[in-house]
Write a structure and sequence with these properties.
This protein is an alpha/beta fold. The protein is 66% helix and 8% strand.
Length: 1343
């Protein structure tokens, strides 16, 4: 067997053992020590596998029996056979080749070591017949006992918290939220309460339903009792209101009559006094009339005299006013002449003063001219001294020589023009060539530099292009994947959104339709009560079908009005099945005092014969303008008879002309006259009468079918809105959860757009880079072509500079030769050797001299011109002109003063006359005033007398009119009291019926007077009922203006017999008009309220009896309701207790697993590059009752953003699932953990992380048994169980290898050499090193 292992069947030689002594291994508890199998699946005979360490790996080739070992562990720990790849127990027994399996028995057992060192043997056996039993330490026990004993050591058989089958990790990562919840329920054992939860929930719902039934029953009876109580109270209020109305009316009429009687007496007394006073006032008015006339005559004569005197005064004043403007004009002329003379005198003085100063001014100018010439002479001398100082070694030129030098210099300059131009041209060309050469040199250097830069940029762009191309490919691949996911998610969202838009559109259409509908029909209070009564009739009498208008409907909307008019009032009739049902309904309505209604009993209705209807239908069916009214009404066959009764053989026509043609055109035939109705509502009866026009009532009745349609639209709208709310609720729920649809789409869209933008940017960058690369290559070629040309141009420019420098020297020599031809003789004549040096030395002095000389010369010229002007001026002629003008002005002034004096003398005489006229007017005015005052006093006295007479006369008229109105008002009030049958108390009455009548006319014993009064009452009522307002007013004028009119006398006698002693004191108080109107309004308002309350009441006289009966029934239902309430309370308490316990178990497990998951996943993903590790968490959809909703599992590997589990790689999913498995194991942890090839989907990095975690955990708190085929995994275990196939017996054989023997201390590791050293996991120290055997023999020896 060892040889078969080493020959390759079992590749143990490839294991690399690490020499490292694990710290604390001796203290680690190893609960499962051995696994004992007998004829179990592929294990023939009795085999004992072990011992198992804290971290044991089971390895072997495919088909050797590793999974059967896993099944054996599962089987002995209570897992059912159907979960072990077998359909029945017999399939688990070993099948030896060539032997019958039925004679064999199988068993599997584990040895469990407790903390105190004791060992328990758990065993399951299978008999040859397939029956099995459970054993503990060799004793047979029941499955329940076996399960409980396993539970005591932490092994939960149902939750399977100790084992992970092959594929469980992948299935865990793919679990749905509901499956995750089921898993947590199994782990937390809250599933044990599921059945109790459902039973308690059902009991709670049944109890609540029973309670609701009792409550509704009690509520219905309470409602009926409350209704009867209201009816009883309404009847009582009805009687109270009638009494209040009678008392209020009596008080109201007595209050009016009392104040009328008091006011009548007062006004009659007042009228007598006013008539006496009026007589006195008329006599006084006549005596004062003559005296007033005489006083007015005298005042008129005085007024005329005053007017004459005043007219004379006005004429004199007018003459004075005419002279005033002339005086003012003369005064202004005098002022102007005086002002003008003053100005001329001042000018004359100025002119004379100027003549005296003229000689002094000429003398001063001469002195200034002499002074300026002296200054010029001094300036010439200073200039000569400056020349000598400036050129002491040379001959100094005189003024004449300097002028000669200027002429010679100009001639030399003219002669050297041509050579100078040639020199300037050459110098200009030289400068241009030098600048061009410098530019070319700069361009050449720049081109060389640019060439080097372009070569570098081409290299950078090429490298950048390659990188961008690679990134673009990766981005496009990722973008396509996101686009696919986004398209799928978006299509689902768009489907929902389209449906929502369709709902919005339909709802908007319905809203628009409903907004256009005019709800003109308003149900009155009586109609609402009738509808309630019909509903009540349906509940009490099964034969009641409802109103005809509710049971039928026109086939088209345009027939609504025609059908309404054709059926008339029968459309509001109630359809019943039999005549007896109708009679019972009438009795019920009468008892309830609801109102009146018409009933149509189907068993006794007379309808037109079928033959007559068919004959009319056959005649009108040929013309589309006519149709039978019964044919345009849709209804059930059961009520067809009621429809035929309502409309008969009425024909519906399109318009009135068609109706005329039908009724009067001979279409009736043998059926006689036909009733026709138009679509507009016009009717032609069988008798030939025509009725047209539509009332509001007809329109409202015709619109009732539209109300049904509106209600249907509203119902449809409510359904659509409910569907829309459901969509919104789903969308909101999806938005609230982390994995919601909108969140998912938004995340995919953001990722896709981000990648798309990144790809677009990369493509744009790639295109830009390529363009830049092409441009740089073109630029490089251009620079390469440009360099030889620049070098050639630079060489040509340098040659041109040399040639131009030679030409410049020749031009300078020519200029000097031309100047020497003219300046040489002058130099010889003056003895100056260097003219240029002399000119430079004296230039500044000469320039200053010339500038100052020019200034002084200009000043001298100005002074000479001014002197010449002053000498030629004539100053005496202006003086003569001013003296002549002054004399003429003085003559004019004398004339004006003389005229002023004459005008003032004339005005003075007129003022004397005006003063006399004023005195005359004043005297006349005083006399006139005296007479006027006298007349006014008389007039005032007369007006006062006349006003008093008018006041008294008006008062008399007003009193008479008031008395007349008061009599009419008294008569009208008494008349109303009779009509309204108001009881008025009479004098001498004792409140007996014989002494207090409703008419208020008389007391008992006055029979004759009563008869006469009644006859008068009938006579007075007749004209008032037949005439209008004007007739009534004229009648009152004729009847009540005379005091002895029979009616006035009768009303006065009747009012005097009223007994006002019993009136309230506040009603007898005198009130002003405003207070009276308020009291009257209060009475009328109170009366209207009472009448409205009375009219609105329909009391049920039998309500008291019904109220007593329903009260007794209500007492019985109360006890039933209390009993059902107590049962519901108990059921709710039981349900809440079970619910809380189930939620607590679930949430305890969930919270523990969630916290453990975060820690475990962080530890498993932590590394030197990612010291913080990743993040994983669980989230519930419903925290109140989590087991009813779902649970989501999310993981975020290090340095990666949030994604769903489906988007993680296979290794990332496996690591996350393993972390969740370990977290689940930490809740009710089993003492050991068995895993079957959980590392299948892990890469080396993730595998190393999982290995590190299991290795660390196995050293502390749990035993791990793992089936694995990866050396990186099992090389870290403490023991190996090798499984191979025995070819001879066709059974599995095992071999256990203790790897702790090869662990070495840390000190010995450094001194010894190993043929091969494998690195440890990322960031961790080497824990174990092993010698790799050189040959299979060495491997076997090691084993």
């Amino acid at each position: 067997r060892i040889a078969s292992f080493s020959s390759g069947v079992f590749p143990l030689a490839s294991v690399s053992l690490r020499g490292y002594q694990l710290v604390g291994l001796s203290t680690i508890n190893m609960p499962v020590t051995y696994l004992e199998l007998e004829n179990f699946k592929s294990y023939g005979g009795l085999q004992k596998i072990g011992p198992f360490r804290s971290f044991t790996s089971i390895i072997g080739p495919n088909g050797s029996g590793k999974s059967n070992c896993m099944d054996a562990l599962s089987f002995v720990l209570g897992v059912q056979s159907r979960a072990l790849r077998s359909s029945q127990m017999k399939d688990l027994i070993f099948r030896p080749p060539g032997k019958s399996r039925t004679k064999l028995r199988a068993s599997a057992a584990i040895y469990f070591e407790h903390d105190n060192g004791e060992t328990t043997k758990f065993q399951r056996t299978i008999g040859s017949n397939g029956s099995g039993d459970y054993r503990i330490d060799g004793n047979v026990v029941t499955y329940k006992q076996y399960e409980e004993r396993l539970g005591e050591i932490g092994v939960l058989v149902k939750a399977r918290n100790f084992l992970v089958f092959q594929g469980d990790v992948e299935s865990l990562a793919r679990k749905t939220p509901a499956e995750f919840v089921d898993l947590i329920e199994q782990i937390s054992q809250s599933v044990e309460l599921k059945k109790d939860y459902e039973t308690a929930l059902k009991a709670k719902e049944e109890a609540e339903s029973s309670t609701l039934f009792c409550f509704n029953k009690q509520k219905g009876m309470k409602g009926e009792r409350r209704l009867l109580k209201e009816q009883k109270e309404e009847a009582e209020r009805f009687h109270d209101l009638l009494e209040q109305k009678q008392t209020m009316q009596t008080d109201y009429y007595m209050w009016q009559l009392y104040h009328m009687e008091v006011e009548r007496k007062e006004r009659e007394t007042q009228l007598e006094e006013l008539n006496t006073e009026l007589k006195d006032k008329l006599e006084m008015e006549q005596s004062h009339t003559g005296v007033l006339k005489e006083a007015k005559k005298k005042a008129s004569a005085a007024r005329r005299a005053t007017q004459t005197a005043d007219k004379h005064r006005i004429e004199i004043a007018g003459e004075v006013d005419k002279l005033e403007p002339s005086i003012i004009q003369v005064e202004e002329e005098i002022k102007n002449f005086e002002k003008k003379m003053e100005q001329d005198r001042k000018q004359l003085e100025n002119k004379k003063e100027q003549v005296g100063k003229h000689a002094d001014k000429l003398k001063d100018l001469d002195e200034k001219i002499v002074e300026a010439k002296d200054t010029l002479t001094d300036l010439q001398q200073e200039y000569e001294e400056a020349k000598r100082d400036a050129a002491p070694d040379q001959v100094t030129l005189t003024h004449e020589q300097e002028e000669e030098y200027e002429r010679v210099k100009e001639a030399a300059a003219a002669a050297s023009v041509q050579p100078r131009q040639t020199l300037a041209k050459v110098n200009k060309q030289l400068e241009s060539v030098r600048a061009r050469a410098a530019t070319i040199a700069t361009e050449l250097q720049a081109a060389k530099t640019r060439k080097a830069e372009v070569n570098k940029e081409i290299g950078d762009l090429t490298e950048r292009s390659n990188k961008i191309s690679k990134n673009l490919q990766d981005t496009e691949a990722e973008s396509k994947e996101y686009e696919r996911q986004l398209r799928a998610a978006t299509e689902e969202s768009q489907r929902i959104e389209r449906r929502r838009e369709e709902l919005e559109t339909e709802i908007e259409k319905l809203n628009a339709t409903l907004s256009e509908v005019r709800d003109d029909h308003r149900k009155s209070r009586d109609e609402e009560r009738l509808l309630q009564a019909i509903e009540s009739l349906r509940n009490h009498f099964p034969g009641v079908m409802g109103r005809l208008v509710d049971l039928c409907r026109p086939t088209q909307r345009r027939f609504n009005l025609a059908v309404t008019v054709a059926a008339g009032k029968d459309m509001d009739a109630i359809v019943v099945d039999t005549k007896s049902t109708g009679i019972e309904c009438i009795k019920y309505l009468r008892e309830q005092r609801v109102g009146t209604a018409t009933f149509l009993p189907l068993d006794s209705l007379h309808v037109p014969s079928l033959e007559s209807s068919e004959r009319i239908r056959a005649k009108v069916s040929q013309d589309g303008r006519f149709r039978l009214a019964a044919d345009v009404i849709g209804c059930d066959e059961a009520i067809k008879k009621a429809v035929l009764y309502a409309v008969g053989n009425t024909v519906v026509c399109d318009d009135l002309n068609c109706a005329r043609e039908l009724c009067f055109g001979g279409r009736g035939g043998q059926d006689g006259a036909i009733k026709a109705v138009t679509l507009g509502g016009a009717v032609i009866s069988k008798a030939g009468t025509m009725t047209g026009g539509v009332t509001n009532e007809d329109s409202n009745r015709a619109g009732r079918w539209d109300d049904k349609k509106v209600q249907e639209l509203r119902d449809k709208k409510e359904k659509l809105e409910a569907e829309r709310m459901e969509l919104d609720r789903d969308q909101t729920a999806g938005r609230q959860s982390m994995g919601g649809r909108n969140t998912r789409i938004e995340e995919l869209r953001n990722n896709y757009h981000s990648l798309k933008s990144k790809a677009d940017y990369a493509a744009s960058d790639m295109e830009f880079t390529r363009k830049q690369l092409v441009e740089k290559k073109i630029l490089l070629k251009s620079v390469d072509r440009k360099l030889p040309d620049l070098e050639r141009r630079l060489q040509e420019a340098e040659q041109s500079i040399e040639q131009l420098q030679t030409e410049s020297q020749r031009a300078i020599a020519a200029v000097r030769a031309s100047e020497n031809e003219h300046l040489g003789p002058f130099r010889d004549a003056t003895g100056l050797k260097d003219l240029q040096a002399y000119e430079q030395a004296t230039r500044q002095s000469r320039d200053e001299f010339n500038s100052k000389k020019r200034t002084i010369s200009e000043h001298i010229s100005h002074l000479e011109q001014q002197k010449e002007y002053e000498a030629n001026r004539d100053l005496h002629q202006p003086i003569e002109r001013l003296e002549k003008r002054l004399k003429a002005t003085e003559d004019k002034l004398k004339v004006s003063r003389k005229r002023e004096k004459e005008l003032r003398k004339e005005v003075k005489a007129l003022n004397v006359q005006l003063e006399k006229a004023d005195q005359t007017v004043q005297k006349a005015s005083e006399k006139e005033g005296e007479l006027e005052e006298e007349a006014k006093a008389l007039q005032k006295e007369f007006k006062e007398i006349q006003s008093e007479r008018g006041r008294v006369s008006k008062a008399v008229t007003a009193e008479e009119a008031a008395l007349e109105r008061l009599r009419g008002k008294l008569h009208e009030t008494l008349q109303k009291a009779r009509v309204e049958e108001v009881e008025l108390p009479m004098l001498g009455s004792d409140d007996s019926p014989t002494s207090r009548t409703r008419s208020g006319r008389a007391v008992a014993g006055d029979a004759d007077e009563i008869g006469g009064d009644l006859e008068m009452e009938s006579e007075s009522q007749s004209p008032s009922q037949q005439s209008g307002p004007h007739t009534q007013n004229s009648l009152q004028m004729t009847q009540f203006s005379q005091e002895n009119n029979p009616k006035v006398v009768a009303d006065k006698n009747e009012a005097s017999k009223l007994d006002f002693s019993k009136m309230r004191a506040d009603l007898k108080q005198r009130l002003n008009d405003r207070e009276e109107r308020k009291v009257r309004k209060d009475f009328e308002d109170h009366k209207e309220k009472l009448e409205a309350s009375i009219e609105g009441m329909a009391p049920n006289m039998k309500a008291q009896e019904a109220f007593t009966a329903i009260t007794e029934k209500l007492k019985d239902t109360g006890a039933d309701f209390d009993k059902s309430k107590e049962m519901a309370r108990k059921a709710t308490a039981d349900f809440q207790r079970i619910k809380n316990e189930r939620s607590k178990r679930f949430m305890d497990a969930f919270n523990h697993i969630d916290e453990s998951l975060k820690t475990i996943y962080t530890d498993m993903t932590k590394s030197s590059k990612h010291p913080l590790g990743g993040n994983a968490y669980l989230s519930l959809d419903d925290t109140e009752e989590p087991y009813k909703a779902g649970m989501k599992f999310n993981a975020m590997p290090p340095m990666k953003r949030f994604r769903d589990m489906e988007q993680l790689s296979g290794g990332e999913k496996t690591v996350a699932a393993l972390a969740l498995l370990f977290a689940i194991h930490s809740f009710h942890p089993a003492p050991f953990f068995v895993m079957d090839e959980v590392d299948a989907a892990l890469d080396n990095i993730n595998l190393r992380k999982v290995c590190n975690y299991i290795q660390q955990r196995s050293q502390t708190d749990f035993q791990c048994i793992v089936i694995s085929l990866k050396d990186m995994f099992y090389e870290r275990s403490q023991s190996l169980v090798g499984i191979c196939k025995d070819v001879g017996t066709n059974s599995s054989r095992t071999l256990t290898l203790d790897l702790t023997k090869y662990d070495k201390p840390e000190g010995e590791k450094k001194g010894r050499k190993r043929s091969k050293v494998r690195p440890v996991s990322e960031g961790g120290p080497q824990k174990r090193r092993a010698l790799e055997p050189a040959s299979p023999a060495a491997s076997a020896a090691t084993q």
